[in-house]
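## retry 2 of 3
previous attempt timed out at serialization; input unchanged, resubmitting
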Amino acid sequence: MCVAILDSDTAIVSILSEIVHDLGQTPSPYHDKDRFLGAIDPASHNVAIISDDFIDVIEGTKQVYQSIEIVAIGTGEGSRCIKAGATHYLKKPFCAQDIQQVLGILMKKPAPGRAHRDESFIAVDPSMEKILEIISKVSPTQAPVLIQGESGTGKEIIARSIHSLSRRKDGPYVGINLAAIPESLLESELFGYEKGAFTGAYATRIGKFELAHGGTILLDEVTEVSLGLQAKLLRVLQEKQIDRVGGKASISVDFRVIATTNRDIEEDIQAGRFRHDLFFRLNVIPIKVPPLRCRRDDILPLAEHFIHKVAQREGIPEKTLAKDAQNSLLKYAWPGNVRELENVVERAMILCDEAMITSEDLIFGMGSPTPAARSLPVGTTIHEMEKGLIVSTLSSVDGNRTKAASLLGISIRTLRNKLNEYSQNSQFSDTTQGKKTQEFSG
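## retry succeeded, writing output
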């Protein structure tokens, strides 16, 4: 494959051609836009370097050949080039290392066959290949799917991918976070209610299962449901019928169910917190998503995806990751998984003033500048790390559980369960640094 180059400055074209050649690629240099447009072809070119003097060429090339990655160079406003379709923008004068870094990233982008076709689901690491295989096999079927994994690993994205690849893709996709809704309201949220069923029920309301008729329903964090409601869920899954609160007749519904949990569901079954029969009804196709620390090959492609996402959303030039920044991302433990990676990249994109993000621009965890500042002793277990993170987070917000849950990326109910677990094991007191924890509704 060749790298096309378009700039009216012959010296710049010559220098860029040498850099491309040194990277083991074949340069296609042009000074005239008509000749460039007559030669550009995705069968021959996967990357094009175009001066911002030819903003119309950038826009036209991207509109016609979306697969060609465009690196814009110049002295003008980089945001114009990004909006026109460029993936990266380098301001002149730039050093050879800058263009090498950008081209290196673009040349290493995964082949179409390695990445999932849903662009929001980036999966390159070998540990994800089995999951991709399962998704491709199970999506066309009607089988229930149970997705297990830590918070922030992308369980909901996998659920959406399954729906979008299914025969129900033209039907509704309805998700409900069972941990975010008070127990007293869950039944009416799931099954709906009739007018006059209770005080305040001024009109009939359709529940999530009815809204998902002909499509897919996602039961997010299903292990947070009480045993009483689990029994009702089991009946709905078995009979495909729901009873609205205050209703007199059952209503048939046609849906496919996908459930997720960030807890050890087998442990919950043993402890009597989750029904064995409901587990078997949901767990027809199990998918266990590994944490980000166990799929290192996904870290940099995901970071590049989030850089592109922020640049497109904010209308700002894309930035590149310096080698030290890449090393920092790869060394970090990522307790918050993909969600935390997205936050780290977004912060760097917004706060970094340079075209290249260095390790000094990366803020990890609760604000430490480098992973080394959050190093843990060898032998620290995941359980201990989780407990320490929860304790320090609660302490940093004066015991406010609502704020702590938001920072941790978990529900208040999950946080409460974790605190109860620590308390039962005599590992944690409901006071943090002498301050009683507080729980607020908002």
